[in-house]
Amino acid sequence: MITSIGSEEQLIAFARALPAFSETHAGMARSRQAQLTKPPGSLGRLEEVAIWLCGWQAAERPKLDKVLTLLFAGNHGVAARGVSAYPSEVTAQMVANFENGGAAVNQLCKLAGSELRVTPLSLDKPTADFTTQPAMSMEEALEAFNAGFTAVTSADLLIIGEMGIGNTTPSAALACALAGGDIDQWVGRGTGVDEKGIRIKKDVVHAGITLHKAHCKTTLELLRRLGGREHAAMAGAIARARQMRIPVVLDGYVVTSAAATLTLTAPDFLAHCIAGHSSAEPGHIRLLKHLKMDPLLNLNMRLGEGSGALVAVSVVRAAVATHNGMATFAEASVTAA
Amino acid sequence: MITSIGSEEQLIAFARALPAFSETHAGMARSRQAQLTKPPGSLGRLEEVAIWLCGWQAAERPKLDKVLTLLFAGNHGVAARGVSAYPSEVTAQMVANFENGGAAVNQLCKLAGSELRVTPLSLDKPTADFTTQPAMSMEEALEAFNAGFTAVTSADLLIIGEMGIGNTTPSAALACALAGGDIDQWVGRGTGVDEKGIRIKKDVVHAGITLHKAHCKTTLELLRRLGGREHAAMAGAIARARQMRIPVVLDGYVVTSAAATLTLTAPDFLAHCIAGHSSAEPGHIRLLKHLKMDPLLNLNMRLGEGSGALVAVSVVRAAVATHNGMATFAEASVTAA
After folding, report:
1. What is the CA radius of gyration of chain B?
2. How confident is the model at residue A3 (pLDDT cuts 50, 70, 90)?
């Protein structure tokens, strides 16, 4: 089993060898759903989620004994342009907050029964400003990608989260480079910038797209030119999870933009991923549509840290609890339709 | 404190004395939300839910130590008309399934940390067929209403669920009598009836509305003419919860139609209620719009039993966990915007 990625070519070879959804196990799950004491289909998305888990876990019954949340933090050259309501030092301050248990992600991990591991990525060394040059060298991008790749350990479900002041700006650039369309429509308020901040964000994304778009045909090239270290790391973790057959719950705009870069390598690279929620960022909803992903939740959240995905874990837990715990019509002596 | 309702007049007097949302405690909750280590508003509906809980619990911090699910079951005269894919005996079979722990609601209560109490309401005595006469006498309706009213005991959050073969038909009739409009649009597939079943359901609701509409100006009169025993009991439980300042999570179409009858007594009767989810029944979505309720979840569920509301409890738990557990900017030494 490959344990790191050294080049774009190696990533392409890696993608060709990825495991597929197990139709056999999904079929077993569907057959069980049809026998449980409820009208067929009446648990809606809970049924779909149970079947999706069985197919990726290649298991007759889904399990969620080990839920792992990986949170990656990075700093961004474009932050100096004034694209965020917060200064860059907040990234490291929030990492300390994660370590002390005081952030939203800590409370939500506890509730979701998830382990939390935080990986700060060279916070004292922001990426370059992508309006004038690529955000990272290929070497830096691979280092970050592999930091994510190697962070994944055996789990039944993986949650991907992030923190990085300014990181909705590279996310908008990644999404726009991938899905095209009007640049401005990919730019939202992030943590809550004012009108001036929005204008700057749009200018920055325009400049980045103009400079790099022609060169963004492959995953790692796109990540290194317009992404941040946390984007590269998240893409690496999501790639590794697919290799290990670990189903993934994506969080908001930033996570989804990172995940989406993998579709340049293989259009179905994200088949093992589910969108945990749709965030309040309009670009996120557009990107989910582009990826044909139907989010589990829509709670108007826009915090990042994996927070929306972690709330969605309770939907996944509900899917597993009903699938595994319910009696069949025969067991309960209930008349079927 | 009134411990039962003896007449329509008494219900009106009861409604006049209902406690109001505590703006003082909601204000405290808003102020705390503004200090937590996250961009203001970034937890979206989680913030709203925390504030809503504080206002109804009249507490500085919301709590969810005791979550109670009350499930009411009834049988229906109209079931004999062929409005359901299942025979009426399934109601009692499912009550046995609840008691044996084999149903969806059992698994979801366990997951939500909720106690479950099931109240079967004269299952061997279905209501009358409302196409020819009122479904219940006023005495029967009051008995069912008070069964719900007295079932509520001290709790931090109340979930209302139901079971009753054929009960989306009276629910459609109740919703139509309350909100008006094209009768057919209130009728959906329920547990999954075929085209013929849908035609029968529509005919039955048309007949019920034609016969009773002019007399359905008050809560109990509406419930007794077009509702089932479980509808009356749920209305009673929701009324009692308001008196006891217990916030309520509503489930799907059947529960919402029962709750909605209380708005005939007082337009803001349901201020302590939140819609847990929007179900796959098109009438439910219409009814939520009529009530100006924005559901927490949309998972295409249509099982009843309180199942959608119980999945939504995890959103409420996430709201409480973040509100109570997160550090403030000052506590975590994080720079505020």
Report:
1. 20
2. confident
Instruction: Provide the token pair at B235.
Output: 């209305």
Tell me the residues of chain B between 276 and 335 that have a Cβ less than 8 Å away from chain A.
280, 296-303, 307, 310-311, 314-315, 317-318, 321-322, 324-327, 331-335
Residue B139 domain boundaries: 65-315
Among candidates A94, A97, A337 on the partner chain, residue whose Cβ is nearest the Cβ of B86: A337
What would the DSSP string read from start to end of B285-299? HHHHHHTT---SB--
Catalytic residue among B89, B139, B305, B331: B305
Structure tokens at A228: 């941040």
Q: B187 is written with which tokens? A: 């009728």
Sheet-wide strand order for A248-250: A114-120, A67-73, A157-163, A248-250, A273-275
ipTM above 0.95, yes or no: yes
Q: What is the DSSP letter of B123?
A: T
In a domain, B105, yes or no: yes
Q: Is residue A321 part of a domain?
A: no
Contact A164, A86 (CB under 8 A): no
CA dist B54 and B33 (Å) reads 12
Q: Which residue has the tokens 């999706």?
A: A52
The count of domains in chain A is: 1
Residue of A nearest to B97 (CA): A332
pLDDT surpassing 90 at residue A336: no
**pLDDT tens across B272-328, in order?**
999 999 999 999 999 999 999 999 999 999 999 999 999 999 999 999 999 999 999
HSE of B39, CA atoms in CB hemisphere, 13 A: 25
Smallest CA-to-CA distance from B295 within B49, B26, B53, B104 is with B49
CATH number of B146's domain: 3.40.50.10210
d(CA B237, CA B73): 13
The region of weakest confidence among A187-201, B107-121, B195-209 is A187-201
Active site residue B230: no
Token pair in block for residue A197: 């901040």
* Amino acid letter, residue B39: P
Determine whether the interchain pair A37/B335 forms a contact, defined as Cβ–Cβ distance below 8 Å: no
> Over the stretch A153-167, which tens digit does the pLDDT of each residue have?
999 999 999 999 999
Whole-angstrom distance, CA of residue A324 vs CA of residue B107:
9
pLDDT at residue number A213: 94
Element housing B70 (H / E): strand B67-73
Average pLDDT over residues B256-269: 98
Q: At what angle do helices A8-16 and A219-226 cross, to 10 degrees?
A: 130
Whole-number pLDDT of residue B333? 95
CB B145 within 8 A of CB B220: yes
Q: Among partner residues B85, B280, B332, which is closest to A100 by beta-carbon distance?
A: B332
Is the residue at A325 inside a domain? no
